[in-house]
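Workshop exercise sheet. Pairs work together: one partner reads the sequence aloud, the other fills in the structure field after running the prediction. Swap roles for the next sheet.
Pair: D.N. / O.F.
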Amino acid sequence: FGAARTGLSERVAPGEVSVLKEDPSVAFRVRWLSGPRPKRPYFRVYVYDRYRNGVWEALKGNRIPREIAPGPQATLEVLPEVEIRALPVPGYALTVKTLKGPRARPGPEGTVFLETEVLEPAIWRLKVRVGKGFPVERSPEEFLDVPRSLRPSLETLARKLKKEDPLETARAVARYLRENYVYTLKPGSPEGEPIRWFLFEARRGHCEYFATAMVFILRALGIPARVVGGYAGGEWNPLGKYYLLRERDAHTWVEAFIPERGWVTFDPTSAADLARRGKQGFGRLQLLWDYLQFKWYYWVIEYDFLKQMRILRGIGNRAKALSRPSLPRFSARNLFWGLAGLFLGVILWGLILRARRKSEQPVEKLLALLERAGYPRSPAETLQEYFERVSRSRPELSSILEEFLELYYREAFGDEKTRERQGLILRRLYQILDKNGS
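Structure field:
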């Protein structure tokens, strides 16, 4: 037993940590591209199935193919800041595309795993199903085990909380735990079996205790349930339209199987307690600072001069917006962040001038050509998004732009010399656009 920092792991052991210390460092940024956006999403990373000797183990292996019923979908991009082998998914992952970094693959129960750990800037694009119920892959009966040492203690309590149907029962159990137990990052060391100690003696604990207790109460009533680990909520940055997930947002909750609805999310931990835990949100200047880091990340992944210029123009526009009268009064802290932003801007400008001294790249010429043809690129668009949008208006350019993008990425990220072939494609585009008078 001992102290640990908030974060995420492939194993969950409620009784091993007597004191949790909050870690404010950034774990992920999740950029929302399209689709419905929940106000307080749960980003699933691991689904835990087996509980042995007080430890939950995450499901591994490949996804079991199943027909997925239609439902609301969203598209997003995940940018990591931690070394991890799995990605946060706000829902059930349908598809995953590796744009840069270790290859990603669909994992069990709608999760996403990586072939190797992330060691450098990387990005993945996910299409996810969002909603109130997730598809069923494995038989729900696989999630009914209760330790023999716990079952006698749980059955009396479980019978008191049982309602007419599984959905109302799950709601009642979650409500009972939220209203009768205290959330704390310092639960102390359990005496004996951790969950029995939490339920009948200490009546206090962190989210791992709450989630595990709810799962075993439901299982004792014959309702399949499982612990899920990931990140809860996070902070929305409207400047870049992304969620900022910090290590202190790491959380565990519950999914219960409800007939005709699939796996439904329940959180037995008090929302008010979690809100107090994450109350140290970013101020407006801090959000601007994180937006700069977010843009720098994209800059490293996808480099071109015109993009850099748009970044600086976007920073200038947002800085003007943040300098309106609603901005908090002068303080040393605000001065620090303002000077830090100015310092980074000077560095960015120096790098731009240095890059500008080099010969103009074909991609710069291509972007200028398309802009003159009436297709300006949005500051928020990646190259791939931009080319896809142009292709929808000009289908005859689709295959050419796709070929150019592949060659560009192979040179930028694979150290393959494709500059000459990019130039040939560029000349073809000149001919097509000139022929069409655009």
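Discussion prompt: Residues 332-356 form the longest helix (25 residues). What would you look at next?
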